[in-house]
Batch of 2 targets.
Target 1
Amino acid sequence: MGVTAPIIAPHLIKPFMEKNFKLTVAYEGTNFRGWQRQSMGPTIQELLELAVGRVCAHPVTIHGSGRTDAGVHAQGQVASFKTTSPRSPAQILAGANTLLPREIAVIKAEEVDLSFHARFSARGKCYSYDFSSSPVRDPLTLRQAWPVGPNLDWAKLKLCFPFLLGERDFSSFQSKGSEVQSPVRSITHLELSFPGPRLARLYFYATGFLRHMARAITGTLYNVARGQLAPEDLSRILEARDRRQAGLMAPAQGLCLRRVYYEDWPF
Amino acid sequence: MGVTAPIIAPHLIKPFMEKNFKLTVAYEGTNFRGWQRQSMGPTIQELLELAVGRVCAHPVTIHGSGRTDAGVHAQGQVASFKTTSPRSPAQILAGANTLLPREIAVIKAEEVDLSFHARFSARGKCYSYDFSSSPVRDPLTLRQAWPVGPNLDWAKLKLCFPFLLGERDFSSFQSKGSEVQSPVRSITHLELSFPGPRLARLYFYATGFLRHMARAITGTLYNVARGQLAPEDLSRILEARDRRQAGLMAPAQGLCLRRVYYEDWPF
């Protein structure tokens, strides 16, 4: 009888253990066609997959917590992917950052439980929207703020918050082409701050965002702050469940995905 | 005898009255070869002269308060020019901004006394220098901050201030090719602030800046904050009057000309 040698040497088995990684990613979105892989021009997902795939030495599929539009920025987008590569989180972070264009950076890489999924595990998100209230265009913020001039009534804009907070049907603030089934989302917190002279920042905390929702709400709040709509009009707009009832869509460059929350969602 | 008609009709005389204008100019310097007109690529001065010249309908020479290097930004550069055009300050501002690339904006235009000169009338200037202390590169500040990582000792950097304040010979912080006769300048105020998470900002107020002076001082302070030089070394460096004794030159993108002071210089 004797002993039969194993067909696969044991040292070859270990690399095939599947691992799951969570990446926190920042990007300056001006030069990209948004998050999601597509045929027209470079996207964050595509460039990340190319970089991480090279570090892992096999093609990877990277799932984001959600898409961001062309021109939208992120300080804390989250993505996850599975790999059989023996690379450590530190090696993936350093390797990917070497291969990525400088407008994209992996700012954190962690090994996580196999059940984690950047999109399906997400509990909530925070977006910010920056307005430049400079009377003339401000070259130093043009890539990251919407130039709205000095005549916005910020107090009036804040009067809109109660109409938006809570669990609501946001169909009126959703663009066509969304994948999602339900248009119900919860906005749990809204905040307006002034982080610099002639700069206003609106924070949105919500359990999720429909397609173009943050930008459609921002544009409608702008209409209120300009006096073209009243804060009370938001009730009517929400009830109509019709995108045409809402205001304009704010341009992409002011929007930034600040953070995606998982177990740490404070609301 | 009779009356002889004047050779020049009186309505043609008025437009030739010379007027002097002061412009306050902001720019995102990344894509330009600095302030001063030159053969290699677009400069702020050249583009301003083209735009203002078209508005005034004759070629103009625009004098800046001083040059800024390629890649350096400005929030309040000041320039002056003389014109015989009947255009109002508001017309010059609006007209020039229509013709300028969006990275350059005239944020204020004023008619001033004929004796005013953006450079010779200046009493002092404020520059700021931004450092990003993010552990990984930060895509959202890459055009306007120097990524120095998280390990700078900011308290040690501040210990350098007393060595730099006051009227001194700054030859050691001057690059060759300067036009100026005297290397003596007064730094009247230095300030370090932290306007955002992982962002440090150093303000310089001085009666004038030699060529590359703000960047050479910033680079040397960086060397101190990294532990490569001691604060006391600044005495030795200043006394040596030798550029080779100072530290490295900080990159252009962190520097921003905040304001030029005339009669309103507070020191």
Target 2
Amino acid sequence: YGHCSLVLAHDRQEVKLTRNAAGRSSDDEVSPREKQQTNSKGSSNFCVKNIKQAEFGRREIEIAEQDMSALISLRKRAQGEKPLAGAKIVGCTHITAQTAVLIETLCALGAQCRWSACNIYSTQNEVAAALAEAGVAVFAWKGESEDDFWWCIDRCVNMDGWQANMILDDGGDLTHWVYKKYPNVFKKIRGIVEESVTGVHRLYQLSKAGKLCVPAMNVNDSVTKQKFDNLYCCRESILDGLKRTTDVMFGGKQVVVCGYGEVGKGCCAALKALGAIVNITEIDPICALQACMDGFRVVKLNEVIRQVDVVITCTGNKNVVTREHLDRMKNSCIVCNMGHSNTEIDVTSLRTPELTWERVRSQVDHVIWPDGKRVVLLAEGRLLNLSCSTVPTFVLSITATTQALALIELYNAPEGRYKQDVYLLPKKMDEYVASLHLPSFDAHLTELTDDQAKYLGLNKNGPFKPNYYR
Amino acid sequence: YGHCSLVLAHDRQEVKLTRNAAGRSSDDEVSPREKQQTNSKGSSNFCVKNIKQAEFGRREIEIAEQDMSALISLRKRAQGEKPLAGAKIVGCTHITAQTAVLIETLCALGAQCRWSACNIYSTQNEVAAALAEAGVAVFAWKGESEDDFWWCIDRCVNMDGWQANMILDDGGDLTHWVYKKYPNVFKKIRGIVEESVTGVHRLYQLSKAGKLCVPAMNVNDSVTKQKFDNLYCCRESILDGLKRTTDVMFGGKQVVVCGYGEVGKGCCAALKALGAIVNITEIDPICALQACMDGFRVVKLNEVIRQVDVVITCTGNKNVVTREHLDRMKNSCIVCNMGHSNTEIDVTSLRTPELTWERVRSQVDHVIWPDGKRVVLLAEGRLLNLSCSTVPTFVLSITATTQALALIELYNAPEGRYKQDVYLLPKKMDEYVASLHLPSFDAHLTELTDDQAKYLGLNKNGPFKPNYYR
Amino acid sequence: YGHCSLVLAHDRQEVKLTRNAAGRSSDDEVSPREKQQTNSKGSSNFCVKNIKQAEFGRREIEIAEQDMSALISLRKRAQGEKPLAGAKIVGCTHITAQTAVLIETLCALGAQCRWSACNIYSTQNEVAAALAEAGVAVFAWKGESEDDFWWCIDRCVNMDGWQANMILDDGGDLTHWVYKKYPNVFKKIRGIVEESVTGVHRLYQLSKAGKLCVPAMNVNDSVTKQKFDNLYCCRESILDGLKRTTDVMFGGKQVVVCGYGEVGKGCCAALKALGAIVNITEIDPICALQACMDGFRVVKLNEVIRQVDVVITCTGNKNVVTREHLDRMKNSCIVCNMGHSNTEIDVTSLRTPELTWERVRSQVDHVIWPDGKRVVLLAEGRLLNLSCSTVPTFVLSITATTQALALIELYNAPEGRYKQDVYLLPKKMDEYVASLHLPSFDAHLTELTDDQAKYLGLNKNGPFKPNYYR
Amino acid sequence: YGHCSLVLAHDRQEVKLTRNAAGRSSDDEVSPREKQQTNSKGSSNFCVKNIKQAEFGRREIEIAEQDMSALISLRKRAQGEKPLAGAKIVGCTHITAQTAVLIETLCALGAQCRWSACNIYSTQNEVAAALAEAGVAVFAWKGESEDDFWWCIDRCVNMDGWQANMILDDGGDLTHWVYKKYPNVFKKIRGIVEESVTGVHRLYQLSKAGKLCVPAMNVNDSVTKQKFDNLYCCRESILDGLKRTTDVMFGGKQVVVCGYGEVGKGCCAALKALGAIVNITEIDPICALQACMDGFRVVKLNEVIRQVDVVITCTGNKNVVTREHLDRMKNSCIVCNMGHSNTEIDVTSLRTPELTWERVRSQVDHVIWPDGKRVVLLAEGRLLNLSCSTVPTFVLSITATTQALALIELYNAPEGRYKQDVYLLPKKMDEYVASLHLPSFDAHLTELTDDQAKYLGLNKNGPFKPNYYR
């Protein structure tokens, strides 16, 4: 889920995933680092909040498995051969029911795993407990301190008698730590798989600087991720995020969406479908022309700011909604951000003495002007769908499956296939990821006849897209 | 909000409105009836949970006012003349931020009000406190006992030196109580305004039996209510209810909706728009033909039950989803009810020893078959949108405005205009209700020219619809 | 097809149905009245353009039959009993492939038929020939004179040794003729079935005046017709009418639709779906509020007239688009009428010396202002879908089936069931009409269980709707 | 308009564009080559059907100009500098109102043009006459023989005292002729602009073989063309093509669309929006997964072939619909092709003795099985929208503007910028093309602030997309 990672990396102090926010309260005040815990098999090779929550976490994992049947099917198909036999994977990702399904899939395929969290707030403690109970060496809890964060990563990497040969990272912190503290580990590492925008950016910089010493897979830019995450995920979550926070009625609402990329397209499709009247702002003429053809008015923000009921940013840019815009909004206007930068809405400009902030619900602030006008600001301008709604497990499954395949590919690649560079997954593997998700919809692929394959100049089993397709 | 009322009347023991369910927990264990409370002006003419919550309740009322501008505008237009001056209204409705806006509008128009709750669970305690603080004689709290319930109603009706001349009822319990205990009160009553299906049904029965001794207005069947509540309200809330409970992804889901009346049409429109594949079951060939023309397959439930991901009932019928259907559903199938009967899904049939119930979240049960198959049952088969999502304030505003106008009409009607019978609001008033809601959308009505009005045989100010229009 | 009839009645001199307009040119100049023609069985009991075209007409009828399976199925179900045995029906309708299927169904059910055209331009000559060849006494051709028109009607009614006992009329001209010339015929007539708005209006006037001497069925206002014709028929034909005349691209077009009744709703749904940005004008607050909830801006025509690309009237009113509006439209603006009055657009105001008219295609005029601005006027302001597109046969099938059932009902009704008044078809028959059309969609109705029927207080076989439902 | 060109190149003997097909009949039988014609200025430097039709053609050009305001605006912006001054362009394209607007734009920018038709049937004679009257050396008429075709091309290239320095080609025939007959001409040629799939393919082959001796611009693969042509053009034309040929009702129709690329996506969006139930077949798992998420069932053709009402191919593949499929279709099933190959439907397999073909309308054949079953085949399996509907002028404008800009770029490029290779237009020019089309929608682009541009690492004036974007 592309734009998440970046934000999580940025605001480690702030993000609270909704599911966790539901408030399974901190049982006690003792730091997990100081607790002695043992799972039912007698192992203490983990550090989680409370191993006793394992059963509850197991149920959450089982629920997630139902929407991640691609991974389950991968377990089945690859079980005999154990394509990750011998793999020692050190991982650093969010620790949620969904990533637990990934981790347990890697184990089922033969890997040994040690895992930490890429975000100090995003760990589902029950899930971490369930993983620990199942024998995974997991070091993570919700509400880690900065020091805890690096301690957990260190515990994963630095273990006597065990040396990682694969890295699965989300945000680049683990990779960074190994570079800094244990550069020798890279001698055994066959490859890095990285999911986030930030992490991938760091890898390209390393590569440019000639410092990347192992092959790396850029999962973030894989076709399946790009084509599905932004468009469909935002189409699913924009309505949900708005309803949960404001109970707003969509019918007849005047909305302006800033940016008509994939994220904007997803938001606009959902809002229009539910009866909102949507305007678009764009800087790019090609996206603007698409917006026109799709039946949206393309305007400058100033032209409509006085009359709209909802403002949504989807640009990746900064200061798209300025204090001047906020000053001109009408009473009760809702403002939120679906893009990937925390600065799309200039929230800082609202922290001035003449404005009063009133927290009316979790993630919902009324900012009140001296004349009584209220602007409804969601999630303090951070990502709405990450903060206030959930992401469909099925979409996360696409990314998780891609990560698993990337690990298998790098781990099993013949010497020399991959150099010390950043790679995209081969198109054929993208297509394999997609095909693993079709049974969820009971979708039946058609197969080319020999004659047709010849006519099209394609292999019957794909890849069907050119390599430059994205 | 049509189908709510009936259900609330039916399952007084069960319904929990979401907003309240958020769990502002019971502060103490003393019954409000035993507390001595005084508002800031020294009055004790009320009985609520905790008068100190008034400020918080006031804010909720103010938020609601923003989406109920029709009532606010009614206050302004009718303020000079005070059309309810002298009216003494005894009311029994849900006590929420939205009904508070109605009650305070009635007061602003000149009425004196005494109020109780029509449901033992639906009272927002803070709102009741705010009403009490503002001087309304309100007797209601969340979690009343059956005895409390009737005590509160009695306190409204039975007061020395004050006798009601109007009744506003939702469900018919207040009306019933007056009939039973204080029949003499009807000598002064100018009329009853009733909102719910159940209450209206009771009134028609009284009328048939020749026992209705005052005029009554049936608000439930007013055009504005019928044309807006079911269709739009369900279109707004079906996605919300499903997401909040299950986080289900809509894209590509196979859904079957039982019933293609207004409720079904609203659900189907929203689900199709978000990428679900929707099938319909219908008993009525006219609705079935509409479903066909709208692009849905019309099937028998048995034909699709094995393959669907979600089952939604919208029929008003009973046992639409039977144990046999439930037995044949696939693993993880979600089952919920948007109709108005608690018995659309035969939930009782699931309470058998061989099935295990597991409560996984609030309002979400997994019913587990011996072979491990889980069916996800929402709100135990009660109304999904009432139980698990919110209803747009704007839609409630339409009904509330109609109630206010019905009270004004009955209170001011010249002797003899209304007999001892049940009436629908005159079409022109329906149109007035609608017109009061247009400014929210910045909608501009066109006015007929004299020439056009003559051509059409209509008055320039309406009514525009024939009386039989609904 | 409701609004057709009225228009056809009004502009007998003008309407040209598209199919005919394709221009199968007039073979010769001899009036059919002066020709001697015999069909292959030796009969001369008809008067058509050219009996030799029968084969081509038969094929058109066969094509129509494929979308009128309800009538075919009615033939089959009722064949044994011949419910129209003994019926002598005199009819006056459009004579097209679709009405031919109706006429031949009536014959198959036992009736004898004599038929004339209700419009001097709408007859498909080939179809008339096919009917004549099949033995129907048909008197009609395309391009009749006024005198021909009444001559044909007279030939149907006035025949030695044959006296009609049923009337099927569309527009009321046949009924009028019988009233005027052969009032005694009514002694044998068991009933009149009338389809058009105009004809029904005349019948109600007769009834009011106490001059209606037989029962009459108002087919125009039957539920199936009202619920399907306007909404779905316009949804199907608005895009078609615009494309065939102007090849306009819909994506991103600014459109204003005047009137948001069923016709307007159908047009707006289709245009929005194809990417147009649609504004609405309305006089009725209830329809205006629906437009808002459906995501359309409600404006006054003046507010948007300068910027829109397309103006569509759907009001039933007159002078909705005035010369003043036309003066303010931008260059290339397209103007057309989907309502039922020819006067919705004030076309007369455009016939002034300073404006130049240029016919650019069939049914398309450019009206050119002195400054060179062109307004694109379609069908000279007459009904677009009647003039420039086709009406789906399936929709016509619904009306035709209703006509057939109305004839059967009136013909077989026991003495006294129907008085000398205008009736609507019983709800149950409406539902039967609908059910006959479901197999086309392979739609499967659900049947109530005994228990459910009892719970709902309904008969298992319907009717399911209350009588006031429309 | 991408897939057109290929087909036109393939079936020079067959294609008839609808507009022309309207049948402005061949005035006489004398070949234009043998006529002596002079325009009103006395020039005979052209060869067209009938110079007297110029006025009518001029009107068609003027109508087209209204939807091609990007070219008109290009004329205005570039008029002072005349960026094509000195350019001598030899062109070979369809000769229609739309290409006429392009040709006259090139002239207005300073170029001299000589023009022939790339297809023997697609020339609009009136338009050719109007061009000739305006002084363009045009050699083209509708219904050329193969010999005429090459004669016309030759007349353009081979003229004493005039030598082309630019080529604009559509299909590669002109380029091929110059290579074959006048290779020396390439010494003066600064570049080739090619629009069609076929032509571009030939250029890449030349380039591979080292035989391309001048720079060439591949307009076919420009972003604006790819992103707009297929998706939007097919969304606009699928309904139109089906209605004009069959008058089919869309509501409730069961449709299968083979292929969910851009063409399929456009078709499906329109059909679903109008109430059809759409199934998809796909060979590519990524497109299949998109179809699922968009709410379509993904099936094998065999699974649904017996029940569907309409089959549409959009694959680019061959024999997608086989005789076996055709044998299993139900009566009245409509079959048509929106892809780019004539062989998607195996029409050849239908030309067997046991099947009867019946031409029921222009472009519509009934193929009749021995048991009476009819399959409705449109355009004999050729491209439906090219054969039976029109293409929006606005979409053609995008391509035409790109062609004009490509010519300007190549003609003015400094020595050495372009080698003897095939190029795509720089991204910035794509964006310029898009921006020229925004005023048609009254769309207002937002401009980046300096600060934002810096933050994003972009130039304020674009390009905004990475080069690999397509």
